[in-house]
Amino acid sequence: MKYGARNQLVGKVVEIKKGALMCQVKLEIPADSTMCSVMTLDSLKELGLKKGSEVKVLVKAINVLLARED
Q1: Distance (Å, rounded) from C-alpha 49 to C-alpha 62?
Q2: CB atoms < 10 A from the CB of 61, how many?
Q3: In Å, how far from its chain's centre is CA 60?
Q4: Model-wide pTM > 0.85
Q5: Which is nearest to 40 in space by CA: 61, 19, 57?
Q6: Which of 58, 1, 5, 51 is nearest to 26 (CA)?
Q7: Residues 57, 55, 21, 34: is their CA dihedral positive or negative?
Q8: For the domain with range 7-59, which CATH number is right: 2.40.50.100, 1.10.1040.10, 3.90.580.10, 3.40.50.300?
Q9: Cβ atoms 27, 57 nearer than 8 A
Q10: Which of these, 12, 31, 54, 60, could form a disulfide with 5 (CB 3.0-4.6 Å)?
């Protein structure tokens, strides 16, 4: 499948926190870093994600904002 997002990494699910409708999926990515993704519980089920699952991480941001506190 082809994706429009150019920033693609491989990650491993290390933690899933479930709420009433949404969940937070914590991923371990290269360079000893972590990322989180928020999705519906329906999406989690549809993707079949669980701790230890290997996934493709697609990053598509409209804006990347930087701020400097003086």
Answers
A1: 26
A2: 8
A3: 11
A4: no
A5: 19
A6: 51
A7: negative
A8: 2.40.50.100
A9: yes
A10: 60
Q: Could you tell me the maximum CA-CA distance found in the chain, to the nearest angstrom?
A: 46
Token duo for residue 6: 């150019």
What are φ and ψ of residue 30, in 5° steps? -55, 165
The three-state (H, E, C) secondary structure of the chain, written as one string: CCCCCCEEEEEEEEEEEECCCEEEEEEEECCCEEEEEEEEHHHHHHHCCCCCCEEEEEECCCCCCCCCCC
Structure confidence by residue, pLDDT tens digits, 13-37: 999 999 999 999 999 999 899 999 9
